[in-house]
Amino acid sequence: MDGTTMVVAIVALSVGFGTLYDAYVRRLKLQETRIKAESQNGAGNQALQEKIAKMEERIRVLEAIVTDEGYQLSNKIRELDPASKAS
């Protein structure tokens, strides 16, 4: 192997390994960004799950009120009252 071939081989190896190292560093940064995004989404999802649970509980309460016999009877009495139909 003469000197010129050896220099070309060293430069080629240096550039090749430099490119591979740069690709590896970019991949690590991408993974770090994904992990941060997933943790932020996890916190947001938790807040949404809590909000949904509260809304479901409110719906259960409203369903209980509407299906209550006293509420049904009160609505039937109002329907029979001619004064309530005018307003």
Description:
This protein has 87 residues and is mostly helical. It is 94% helix and 0% strand. It has helices at residues 3-67, 69-80, 82-86. The longest helix is centred in the middle third of the chain and has 65 residues, at 3-67. The protein is rod-shaped. The N and C termini lie far apart (105 Å).
Task: Summarize the SSE layout with pairings.
Layout lengths: L2 H65 L1 H12 L1 H5 L1
Offer a few descriptive terms.
rod-shaped; mainly alpha; 94% helix; single chain; 3 helices; 87 residues
Strand content: under 5%
How helix-rich are the residues, as a percent range?
Answer: over 70%
Query: How many β-strands, per DSSP?
Result: 0
Coarse morphology: rod-shaped
Sequence stretches where pLDDT stays below 50 over 5 or more residues: none
Order of helices and strands: HHH
With helices defined by DSSP (H or I, 4 residues minimum), what is the helix count?
A: 3
Largest β-sheet summary: none
Distance between the termini: 105 Å
Gyration radius, in Å: 35 Å
What is shown here, in short?
With 87 residues, the protein is an all-alpha fold. It contains three helices and no strands.
